[in-house]
Amino acid sequence: MNDSIAITPAATPSALPHSAWNRHNAIRWLRKMHGWIGLWGATLGLLFGTSGILLNHRAVLKIPAVQVQESTVQLPLPQPAPASAQAMVEWLRGELKLDHPNLKSREEPAHGVAWGDKSMTQPGHWQMSLTTPRMNVQADWWVGNSFITLKRSDNNFFAVLTNLHTGVGMGVAWVLLADTLAGSIILLSLSGVVLWTQLNCRRLIGAAIGVTALTLTVALALQAM
Question: What are the residue boundaries of the structural domains of the chain, listed by start?
Answer without folding.
Answer: 68-161, 171-214
